[in-house]
Amino acid sequence: MIQTRPELLAAIRDRFAHVDSCPFQGPRVFFENAGGALTLKSVVDTSARFAAIPDNQGRDNPASHALVDVINRARADMSVLMNTSSGQFFAGESGTELLFRMIRTACVNAPKGAKIIGSSIEHPASRSAARRWAEIAGLDYVNVPHDDATGIVTAEAYREHLTPDVRVATILHASPVTGMGMDVAGIAAAIRDVAPEAIIIVDGIQHAAHGQLDIDSYGVDGYAISPYKVFARHGYGIAWISDRLSTMPHDMLIDAPATGWEFGTRDTGSYATMSDVVAYFDWLGGEVSDETDPRARIEAAGRAIHDYETHLTNAMIHGTGNLPGLAEMERVTIIGGADNAAREGLVCIAIDGIPSPEVVTRLNENGIRTHTRKADHYSGNVLDPLGLPDAIRISLCHYNTEAEVAQLLSVIKDLLD
């Protein structure tokens, strides 16, 4: 629907800061969304407004009461965005830090000799936390290999490694390397079938910007996002935890409320900017549907985002206008395959005979922002099995355009020629 309504796409782009130019570089195409999405202009305004307020939460004065109301409203807004009917939201240092905290708590509360299960496709945020705290807590770590060809891990793959003594499980919702989304609900159901007592924690950091979050349907205990990757800003992370995880013994101040998970005074502005993000999804849902219920509008926005981003990635892979797509270019390898239904707004490629950093530099020189993924501690789990030392990550969002895709293809075609 977005691709057939240029006025809507223009309205979408108008809501984001630096949509087509960089304050340091000048005009550019932004295909580095997996590294951090563009920021809503409303988020910029909200951040400045709250940065000027000297008061903190928990005091008996009008400003403090107002700040508490802002936080409570943001938590309610996030509940609508992510569809939660229980549990709690809280803010932390980053999405990675929150994954460590949730996984740590689950591991130290598990019986010694139990197991923690995760997949080789996961970002090191969850894999590192799981392996570290498995060793400290006396748990056995079980690795579920992902499929190298498709870049995904399935519920069936998890099921092959599940045993009833699994007490902690981690799932990646979408890969920042392959761009593929996982069936979180299906994987969680497989885990529950065999190990119903397991605490299941999900890394939703890469997935969140693509607009389809439904925690109630997943059957999990923890979910983390990084707001700067979903149109907000840097400096904090957001986690949702179930009532069961909330009440587990965890790091906290002496005699503090038993279900409190935040340390120190949080930035009210960070919460407020999440309300801006929710308001944006709500607005977009109203533009692409006749729904009046906020959750229904958000679901409609998610469907429209997915459809449009699929349109853009198909154009990138199969071509647009008279430009050949990446799949038609000799020497180009598309990680995860050209036609992969799990793809979420990201195409990762390698070019035979040209180091990826050189390609990224050439694209930058032509005003196109992408990113090199190297076979290091961040991406080696995906690239090493494919025999690739590096790759070029081209990550887009629903504010990108087909003309920007054409610009990318033109530069790559010239590079190969």
From TrEMBL:
Source species of the chain: Roseovarius nubinhibens (strain ATCC BAA-591 / DSM 15170 / ISM)
Transmembrane segment boundaries: none
Positions of the Aminotransferase class V domain: 29-246, 324-408
Family matches, as InterPro entries: Aminotrans_V_dom, PyrdxlP-dep_Trfase, PyrdxlP-dep_Trfase_major, PyrdxlP-dep_Trfase_small
Residues of the signal peptide: none
Superkingdom, natural source: Bacteria
Keyword annotations from UniProtKB, A to Z: Pyridoxal phosphate
Name of this protein: NifS-related protein
